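Need Hydantoinase/oxoprolinase family protein's 3D structure for a figure. Predict it.
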Amino acid sequence: MSRIRVAVDVGGTFTDICIMDEDSGAIRIEKTASTPDDPMQAIMNGVEQGRIDLSQVTMFSHGTTVATNALITRRLPRTAMVCTEGFRDVVEIRRANKEDLWDTYKDVAKPYIPRRDRLTVRERVSAEGTILEALDEEAAHRVAEILVKRQVKSIAVCFMNSYVNGANERRMREILKEAMPDLPVSISSEVMPEIFEHERFSTTMANAVCAPVVVDYVSRLGEKLAAAGYKRDLLLLHSGGGVMTPASVRDFSARLAGSGIAAGAIASRFIGNLCGFPNSIGFDMGGTSTDVSLAWNGESRITKDWYIEFGYPIRFPSIEVLTIGAGGGSLAWQDEGGSLRNGPQSAGAFPGPACYKNGNRTATNTDANVVLGRLGTSLAGGKITLDPALAVQAVQETVAAPFGMELHQAAEAIIAVANANMGNAVRLLSISRGYDPRDFALVAFGGAGALHGAAVAKELSIPTVIVPPNPGVTSALGCLLVDVQHDFSESFMADASTVSPAEMQTAFVLMEEQAVERLTHEGVAREDMALQRTVEMMYQGQWRSLAVSAPARIESICSLIEAFHNEHEREFNYRREEAPVSIFRIAVKAIGIVPKAEIPRHEVLPHKPQPVGRRRVWFDGVSHDAAVYEREQLSAGAAFTGPAIVEQFDSTTVVPPGMSATVDGFLNILIVTKG
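Structure prediction for Hydantoinase/oxoprolinase family protein:
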């Protein structure tokens, strides 16, 4: 029997399963309804529905929303924090900033761990790492007794300056473990050994509250898969764009926050590279939201400035993804000033758009697309049928009548506002970061990405749009394209002009030894390991740093300084050659390379495909007779021009008038936005 790889992406409405044959590279997909109360049930339902023999599965990779949902809903187990005396309120004081500076009535949410469960002990470490006061072990034992009585499920230990010397934190953990051997204990000197107390404490707090939830879920899923015949490690996608095994989940649970959206960014980057576009923008539009990501020179943009809830940063490296409330179910509405708006309110999975026949009467993007003829009346292979009369009624009542517009003009206005919102998101992630969208291809996927991708690209002067073979399950595909990955970092604060290359080399070597040990623990062979170094630097006086790549052997700091000047100029459009440069942090990315199955390439035979039908589609106020194609019938080399509609099981692609499309050897549709 063929060996297969399975990837699962759990969404709010559907759980997508991507099944790849290792030998042929052939991919098939399955979709099953998600089970929010227990995501594992939907996974097992999908395995059964897809007739997957788990004994033949060589890799089972999973992008999960368990950690994200736990933090959003705050359905968290009782967790405690142990802090240096006098510093229990660091996570509540935060940075004293607000998400909306001008909204005086909107308060930042409370910390994940309430004040009554944040206890203190006497200890102190200097900024240089000298132990000024050893841990008060008598007080530490009293704290342990209190936490046993409170029956907490997890503990975070966060001491001042432990990032340079974690001895007191490690001793505190030993005392806690003596009293509660099976309890997960996160210590900040291991979770995030970096300066800035709030960010370090916040990350450790998030890690601690997620640990019991994630460990329980991963353990149960692993047992279910093993009972059904799966013999390998379950691989879990983390926010940094790699995977980790259950062995690391207990210690770094918060890395799974943001797991789901990272999968789409990974798949987008892969598809862009496959098509010859190392610079690509991922455009993942679903039913409720749109996720935008960016790859430059074949690499995803990474950030450490992210959070699930404002005020509580999670400083693990993460693929930078910008999410906005724009999707197929986004509602059209009129604001107090009389302007037409779109989203972020959504009709959700239920009742859904008006044309879903579940009682909603407010127009959505899906309804507007139905009115314009861009979306057919049958979705998901006939599992969902749409009522165009209800779509017409919703657009008429929501927009056409209030604004005095003709029906199709109103529908186009709804789409135009949605496209503008999504275009602004792309600008924020590209232009505001120093990237020109004209240098990129737009990879459009998700259930609705291919419907809007060409229009958004045209607005931004992006020359090429790539629509993958299975847009609706592209995020699941991303779970098949990842390696085992861990990120290590530590503060290294020094003046770049005086730092010793040997000193930095020694620090990197020590970190790499930890990295190799972690990958070995994950079962990665030494020949399959790759280590990537970066140095974060800034002009003296700044507090935001930029990362530059570092060589395998540090022999000169001058080359690093020059690389920093170049990166600063690209990011901010200026450089200060005369200004002194500071080194802030060093980091190592440890990669355990997982063999990748090859995506099959088909022979390209240029031809003009035959449409399966035609229908009236509206663009720019004009009705067009558009060709309708079945995606499964479009072979490599097919070429056609807009206006055209391409329909398939999981998505619909729109090619507007004046644009041309071709199918490449990997069965991607490439739309050229300029004639």
